[in-house]
Amino acid sequence: MKNPTIQILKKAIEARLNWGAAEGWSNYDFEKLSDEILEVTEVSLSVSTLKRFFGKVKYQNKPSFTTLNTLAAFVGYEDWRSFETEAASENSEEIIPSLKEEKPVEKRAFELKPYLYSSLVLLLVAALFLYLKSKPKYNLEDFQFSSKTMLSKGLPNSVVFDYDATAANENDTVFISQNWDVRRKFAVDRNKRHHSSIYYYPGYYRAKLMAGDYILKEHDIQIITDGWLGVLANTTNDMPLYFSKEEVYEKDAVVASKELLEKYDIGLTPDLPLIWFSNQKDLEGFKTDNFEFEIEVKSSFSEGKAACQNMQIMLQAKDDILIIPLAQPACVGNMYLAAYGFGTDSKSADLSGFGADLHEWTKIKVVCIDREVQFFVNGNLAYKATTQNPVNEIVGVHARFEGPGSIRNTVLRSGGMEVVFD
Question: Which of 165, 179, 198, 312 is the most buried (most CB within 10 A)?
């Protein structure tokens, strides 16, 4: 039998988000929920954990207390126990025997069912929680926050933050967050003025000065590459392995070959190395509502766990992303496509057009006219979508491979302008 209190918690989360019933949520929605939970609670719950909790993935075990505590905190409670107590307070003779004696309930001609009453209580508490969070806690003019990068381009790159947070309450810890990721969140002395951090990956970031979980100031930082940067991504700590231009630049392509990986004793079995190519630069006039983008890619390794040859091409905008998935035709059943606020996966959409023989050069073309996006793979229309987020500026291209990979002929066009990523 389903735990009724857990069901109430699900409904409270749905009400807080106002996205409709969780049964209709996409993979993108669960990714967004994971980010919002992290922002509110500073605890990261994975997409798979959230899908299990909401029943999108079959799972027999009960949610862990860490999951329940985090989700209860997300809707405004101290922890799962306090939520459980509140939810059971009107129907709890077995759970809290003394409650009925202290607060007898008068019989009425019409009475809300206990679980409906509890749901209403939770919705009211959640609304109050959101209202209190929205009330200004600080005068933002009392704070200062700026930064400078040590290198104009290239990685790694140090950033020196200048800040004034002396007006923060003594009970609130002052933080500088390099972006949304708590691994980039550092406690700083409210009475000091400078803090330095290192960025190991290129991209467009939104740094924040915070007091507790309250954002005081924020600004954007772009970490620019010198042409194409090839890295072996490190999933266990910050520092990746950077490949030199001489190692990856060939006559007409950028290549991370099997031989290059062997040079660094990087094995391809049993687990695949993650190879990322990035080209981040200052661009002007390229917007997410009207553009044309082309790139050719190839994966030269398909042994062992690389049988699917999964890869992703990303066209990054300021605080936004377009993601193009690619794989062997047999593996199109596990893909995610995104286009500046639009998102879908192969569980709910036909993404079979993104399957191709990736041992050969595969041409990707994206055409966006007045927010209407068309994705082409080797000249064939693979999918259509409409962007959802506010129009933004495009700032970079990324290609991610599981194992060796190659890219070439990367071009972005808009309104008669053209930029070649070389």
Answer: 165
